[in-house]
Description:
three-stranded antiparallel β-sheet; single chain
Amino acid sequence: MTGDARRKLGEFWATSRANELALEGEKRDGFVQGEAKKPLRAPVLIIVSTRTDPDPVVAEEDFAATSAAVQNLLLVAAEREFSAMWRTGDIVYSVPVKKYLGLDESDKIVAVVYIGERGISDAQPQTRKSPEITWLE
């Protein structure tokens, strides 16, 4: 998704969510204005989804495989010196957004990947906790 499609998605999402939350007046205006800008944070959005199989085991495996594909997409973006960020949030659970994107209501949006040019940032890198690893022998 590029260009004006990002703006249209943002406006659709923001208005749809404001309606779901029954927001009114200034609170609604502020919410819509803020949410509508989110898809404009990068020049390219890749929205990744997967079908949901009726078999819960297959559905879980499909979701995991799609997540792995998103990780590979991020690795390729980094290799090609693009900035890329995997996001989710309320938008991925929105049935109206799924329909807007031509997805089935039961599909799962796994990621909204924001891709742009790598830039120089004054932001400090985030520190993350080391993962716990348990070895069994």
